[in-house]
Structures are given as C-alpha cells and as structure tokens.
Design a protein that fits this description.
By secondary structure, the protein is mainly α. Helices cover about 70% and strands about 5% of the residues. InterPro entries: DUF5618.
Amino acid sequence: MTRKNQGPALAPAEEAARYLENAKTILSEKAGKKDGLYADVKYVKMASGTAYSAALLILDEFLKQKEGLKFTKPTSIEDYTNRVRKYDKKLMRLLVEVYDELHIAGYYHGTSSARTIQLGLDNVRQMLTYI
C-alpha cells in the first residue's frame, strides 16, 4: 500500500507524533468527554489503538538505533520489553504503562476513564523523547 498525495515519508519521530495527534483529535472530536468519562467507547478504542501504534513506532526506531543491522521487528510485548530493558529501564517502564493504559484498558477493554487514557497519551509523549 502506498501513501497517496502525502508527500515524502515522515521521519519516525514525526510519524509517531502524527499518530499521537490523530488519537487526541479522535478523542476530542468524537468520544464526548463529560465528568472525566468518555461517552463513546468505540472512539476511545480507536484512539487508544492509534496512540499505542505510535508507541510501537517509537520502540521500533529506538531498537533500530540501538541494534543497527541486527534489528528485527519484535513479535510480542514480551519481546519488546526484554529487548528495550537491555538499553533503557525507564523506557521499558513507560512501555509497560502504555501497554496497560492504552492497549489493555483503552483498546482491549474499552475503558471510559479519561484519566487512564490521558496517562497513556502522556507516557507516549515521553517515549517520543527517546528517538
């Protein structure tokens, strides 16, 4: 699949930031937040998946920078955590939190908690500083 009418490919950090911005837009325009809860879980799941994808883009780039030619794309969350742990324990902790907040609570379970999703988004933003 090719990118049509989008110009040259973005750098990994820019692409991850774009995903993160898309997730925030989905939440603000579609999910309907009231009293700290989102009204439409469908859009929370969509935004959580998008933001989690940004985290995986960040991790892939981080590992490419560390492993060079030996890099192969991780195939599981355990593979990501084991490999990232070798290089940076703080990034590994952020990954575990993002996995819990966005992938499990947000995408898989469809939490309506705005606080949980916001924590996940903030953690992805912190992960961006690593690439």
